[in-house]
Amino acid sequence: MPLAPELAVSRWFNAAAPITLASLRGRVVMLHAFQMLCPGCVSHGTPQAQRAQQLFRNTDLAVIGLHAVFEHHAAMTPVSLEAFIHEYRLTFPIGVDEASSGDPIPVTMRRYEMRGTPTCVLIGRDGTVRHHGFGQEDDMALGAIIGTLLAETP
Amino acid sequence: MPLAPELAVSRWFNAAAPITLASLRGRVVMLHAFQMLCPGCVSHGTPQAQRAQQLFRNTDLAVIGLHAVFEHHAAMTPVSLEAFIHEYRLTFPIGVDEASSGDPIPVTMRRYEMRGTPTCVLIGRDGTVRHHGFGQEDDMALGAIIGTLLAETP
Amino acid sequence: MPLAPELAVSRWFNAAAPITLASLRGRVVMLHAFQMLCPGCVSHGTPQAQRAQQLFRNTDLAVIGLHAVFEHHAAMTPVSLEAFIHEYRLTFPIGVDEASSGDPIPVTMRRYEMRGTPTCVLIGRDGTVRHHGFGQEDDMALGAIIGTLLAETP
Amino acid sequence: MPLAPELAVSRWFNAAAPITLASLRGRVVMLHAFQMLCPGCVSHGTPQAQRAQQLFRNTDLAVIGLHAVFEHHAAMTPVSLEAFIHEYRLTFPIGVDEASSGDPIPVTMRRYEMRGTPTCVLIGRDGTVRHHGFGQEDDMALGAIIGTLLAETP
């Protein structure tokens, strides 16, 4: 399986320092790509990521948010995102996907060939992409994949 | 009962012309005050207002949204609101509550002495305030009040 | 509009004495017909009737349940219904629709020409049927009809 | 960890032949103990078991229902259970927990020292009890445990 492309992030929230996937090698990563004005993200995907962080807080899972804005760019700036994070009480690290000059699709979103938001990418301890899902993820199915990946020998 | 204070709106969405409560006299008005980054509005109050507009579309009920921003002002500008309205497919008229110089609370919100968002105000055919509720409104209770107000002789 | 047919009930629960529609003339009646093993009743209709009783407890609305068994008769006897009422903490009066000899459809269900369960019948203060709905009723729509009927002069 | 006690079942539904845990050794077992008139089972636990069977249908998970009646015995006989299974379209095997003479608690429930219904017991490929939960189980947490147990070498 292919190695997960590295993140390209212009600004981090809820993180003391920039985060790279390279530095998370050996752990399982849940990458939740969203937009703050995407209804399916706000009602389902983003609260699910928050619940995953809480549920697996004592495990090797790292939940990382990616604000992947590919539409309404002027409406979803970092100042708006910051208020969103505050109001929705999100506590997992969230990176702003780096804008691409001349392309509405930001850099990380393009690297992962995401089809839209929400997208959930699960990365194994070996750094390979093990799940890549667009749209609503079922809680039980998501839990099963995470449980399986955590069970692999680091 | 007191007459409902007039709206102070700096910009309308989903309306061909500015709307006044005076012009709606004789009809029942549901005024839904919200903020686009208020979780309780997005998950409950605003979809409820949209459902009310749909349910009572052939009656004398007018559903009016009021974007009453009293916090995170830079995060909830009209350009962001416009994207929000588009993404959430809101079709009822929405006015931006007029900013007040030197006061974070906008003008209409102050006139109604609203405690926060979401706030639901129901105005009878005679122009008086008949219900003023802060927080989550129960669908059945709301329907009952609207049904009662619509039953009054114009 | 036609007068609502009288109830035919073989046994009452949550009632000190048998209830007739005739004795409720002047009040609004919500008649909730259900079966204890009907999934749509258990998940939606019956809790809705319970909420309606609570919401309108200080009004002229009378909520009446009707256990209208038309299938699996041996599985839904009064002894099972009694446990169901206890476990689901139902507090509104519930009558067992009278069995009809040679007909799986019980008497009241036949009189009202109900198509199945849940069925919600709303009866005005004048005793006429004002709403007759099969399946899931929207809370707001139901509230609106009840509010309208309560607003009529007794 | 202790070996899971064997099931004591007086009658099976949705099964061609009686099922024993011994015969399932090497597979993961989800044992869902419920009562057909237990509101928390009907609204949450039992549909969750049905979803688990569907989600993991191509894996080594076996979902087994246990109708563990410890109250209202006359109200929840096999004839009522059969109609319940039909109406709720349950397709996983369901055993009636064997009645115990002189004890309202049936045999299997007693062996597992279950506190009530719903109870979810997860048994590993080695036949030991790995999870024993009373009440509402979170979908994501349940999925994670199942994923972990399935990942163990048979």
Would you write up a description of this structure?
The structure is a homotetramer of 154-residue chains. Chain A has helices at 39-55, 78-87, 107-111, 139-151, and strands spanning 9-13, 28-34, 61-67, 94-97, 119-123, 129-134. Chain A is of the alpha/beta class and 154 residues long. Chain A has one domain: Glutaredoxin, CATH 3.40.30.10. In chain A, β5 and β6 (129-134) form a beta hairpin.
CATH topology of chain A: Glutaredoxin
Shape of chain A: globular
CATH superfamily of chain A: Glutaredoxin
Main interface by residue count = A-D, 19 and 19 residues
Give the C-alpha Rg of chain A. Answer: 14 Å
Helical segment tally of chain A? 4
For the largest beta-sheet of chain A, the strand count, sense and barrel status come to:
6 strands, mixed
Oligomer: homotetramer
Class derived from helix and strand content of chain A: alpha/beta
Could you spell the SSE succession of chain A in H and E letters? EEHEHEHEEH
Beta strand % of chain A: 15-25%
- Helical fraction of chain A equals 25-40%
Layout of strands and helices, then pairs:
Four copies of one chain form a homotetramer.
Chain A: E1 9-13, E2 28-34, H1 39-55, E3 61-67, H2 78-87, E4 94-97, H3 107-111, E5 119-123, E6 129-134, H4 139-151
Parallel strand pairs in A: 2-3, 3-4
Antiparallel strand pairs in A: 1-4, 2-5, 5-6
Pfam families (chains A, B, C, D): AhpC-TSA
Protein name (chains A, B, C, D): Redoxin domain-containing protein
GO molecular function (chains A, B, C, D): antioxidant activity; oxidoreductase activity
